[in-house]
Amino acid sequence: MKAIQPNASLAQEQFLTILSREEAAARFDAALFPRDVPQDSVALPDALGRVLARDVCAPIDVPPFDRSNVDGFALRAADIAQASEATPVRLAINDETIACGTAPRLRVTPQTATPIATGGPVPRGADAIVMIEQTQPADGAVDVRRAATPGQFISSAGSDMARGETVLRAGVEITAREIGMLAACGIARVDVARAPRVAILSTGDELVQPGGVLAPAQIFDSNGPIVAAAVRENGGEADFLGAIADDEASLEQAMRAALSTHDMLILSGGTSKGAGDVTHRIVARLGAPGLIAHGVALKPGKPLCLAVCDGKPVVILPGFPTSAMFTFHDMIAPVLRRMAGRAPRTDAQVAATTPVRIASELGRTEFVMVSLVEGADGLLAYPTGKGSGAITSFAQADGFLRIEALADHLPAGAHADVTLFSAHLRVPDLTIIGSHCTGLDLVVAPLARVGLLARIIAVGSLGGLAAARRGECDLAPIHLFDEKTETYNTPFLSEGLELVEGWRRMQGIVHRRDDARFAGCDAREAVARALSDNDALMVNRNPGAGTRILLDRLLGGAKPEGYWNQPKSHNAVAAAVAQGRADWGMTIAPVAEAYGLAFLPFAQEHYDWALVSARKNKPAVQALLASLHSDESRAALVRAGFTPA
Ligand code: AMP
Ligand code: MG
User: Fold this and answer.
1) Among 232-246, 275-289, 292-306, where is mean pLDDT lowest?
2) What is the atom index within ligand 1 of the atom nearest the CA of 323?
3) Interacting residues of 301 by C-beta distance below 8 A, sequence separation 6+
4) Among 33, 409, 441, 518, which is least packed, fewest CB within 10 Å?
């Protein structure tokens, strides 16, 4: 365990110099390139997925000879210039049949024809082929019923690939198609780039590998697997060496060992220079020239650290997975691809409009992950961000847009070019924007079986309603309580929206099962006891949440300890109580059950859908409604603790 000294090491050192993204990339490039790409010579079948190390020129013509494309007769076009259905032209048949693999012997002289198969070499004298379907046998001769232009149905030598022509370029990834071209040229071995061996290390005392068990305050290592996969996606050979605790000596040892056997080293975490973050200090002494950039004016990803140690790139990615992934793709993948002999990634872009204002930090190039949905006038780009610690903001995005360093926001309605994460964008058939519920996943799941793609964007009930009013989604799931009418959801609908009833969720007070203070209570009694016990810490909900309204009523104006702990989700409440950060709160029954908490029912919450009437007849909307009302979905909802309406 490292010792944390309150004053000196908890105060973050400043980043030495924050470089612009472009400047950092240029310096990194200059320290690494030009360099030779090591090569392997591999047999053709083993070349799949590898990258060509050099251009390939065709050593022969393909096809190697003039070749018939059809089954028919080789002849002279001039002989049949007058042929028609009414006036066929009769030609004598030469005494040979040219099959595939048969070299012709006889010349095609005027008024004669030679039978030829698809792929057969065109004989001397012939300049066209007629299809067998346009001929008729006639007493040892053949009647041709249609005229032909010279060259008809002949592929001439070298028309596919001409000898000496560059047919494949260095940097191309070898797929079945490239294998086919190489085979057609007779090439049995190819020079391919050798994949750089990349060592990957995660750093942090808090990390547990997937498959392990989390102790309190621990998290699973997501960067290790992410970076290893991203390295492979970009042509590297990934060697994940596990997670190392934040201990300078063991880290340095692991880094030196990794560098001695690999071409590149990628770490994550430990760059923010908080207490115990030591990797950057080690990097500085691993080899010349050392640190290239520590701190890049890039968001997400400011704490990125780039170094070159004795010619090998050493990179420390930020700890937060979305930042790690994004900086890898933006700053590291291009370098890795170049070391792997690969062409730069070609990113597809689409034009979209931003439906909401997106704030941005002045002075940093900011990349905003977005989900694309179909709006009335083209694509809309919804930010998927849930904060820099959220992995889903990257994983569930279609792409990203860029806000320049000099702008402090992008207004609603702005035009934006969205760079896609994959070459093809599939716009969802069904767009659901609003409050999320695990029941929602159950109802949406059957759509995938019929090939419908649904996109759920969780922005809360009010955000969903606003999106529905603007026509940006098909449906908005909501659970809004109207105090005046004491009813759910209906009072919030406006013109153009209609209510589709969803399901009920029982709201209740939760506490740990072994907490004797609440033994034998109902919900009201439990709150009364909590209010008279100074040690009973509550966890509240965020203002605006339906649950918060219920809680405030139960509290009757009291603000007990814990009132200002106001997380935004049912799960966060349950986690706080289960982990002992709080003693009681209000959440829904399925969540209480999932966290093993005692549950004291209080009131039914209505989780319904605001349907955009104009979209009601869309097949995907109809499919969703059918699913909602199906026996299958209703049974699944009941199993999960919900009560279908
Ligand atoms: P650091 O840069 O080490 O201060 O880490 C910043 C944040 O990223 C902390 O919340 C870390 O727990 C988190 N983090 C660091 N490494 C990983 C990892 N490999 N997987 C998931 N989260 C990580
Ligand atoms: Mg760390």
Assistant:
1) 275-289
2) 8
3) 317, 318, 323, 326, 327, 330, 331
4) 33
8-state DSSP, 518: G
Residue whose token pair is 């937060």: 320
Q: With beta carbons less than 8 A apart as the criterion, state whether 511 and 536 touch.
A: no
Residue from 2, 320, 322 whose mutation best tests the ligand 1 pocket (most atoms within 8 A of CB)? 320
Q: How far is the CA of 265 from the centre of ligand 1 (A)?
A: 17
The residues whose Cβ lies within 5 A of ligand 2, an ion, are 204, 269-270
Q: Which domains, from first to last, does the chain contain?
A: 6-35+195-339 (3.40.980.10), 39-62+160-193 (3.90.105.10), 67-155 (2.170.190.11), 351-491+616-630 (2.40.340.10), 503-608 (3.40.190.10)
* Residues contacting ligand 1 via CB (< 6 Å): 202, 204, 206-207, 219, 221-224, 268-272, 274, 277, 318-321
Share of the chain above pLDDT 90, in %: 77
Q: With a threshold of 0.90, does the pTM exceed it?
A: no
What percent helix, strand, coil does the chain show, rounded to 5? 25, 30, 45
Closest residue (by CA) to atom 17 of ligand 1? 319
Tens-digit pLDDT profile for residues 18-54: 899 999 999 999 999 999 999 999 999 999 999 999 9
Closest listed ligand to the CA of 324? 1
Quick one: pLDDT at residue 334? 95
Whether 307 shows a pLDDT value over 60: the answer reads yes
Closest residue by Cα to atom 23, ligand 1, is 319
Spell out the long-range contacts of 94-99 with Cβ–Cβ below 8 A and sequence spacing 24 or more: 94/123, 98/68, 98/74, 98/123
Closest ligand to 246 CA?
2
Closest residue to atom 10 of ligand 1, CA basis = 320
Which region, left, alpha or beta, applies to residue 211 given φ > 0 means left and ψ of -120 to 50 means alpha?
Answer: left
- The type of residue at 159 is S
Looking at the DSSP assignment, which residues form a beta bridge with residue 142?
91, 137
Nearest atom (ligand 1) to Cα of 303:
2
Instruction: Note whether 246 and 277 are within 8 A (CB).
Output: yes
Q: Which of 219, 273, 279, 326 to mutate to test the pocket of ligand 1 (most atoms within 8 A of CB)?
A: 219
Lowest-pLDDT choice from 243-257, 276-290, 622-636: 276-290
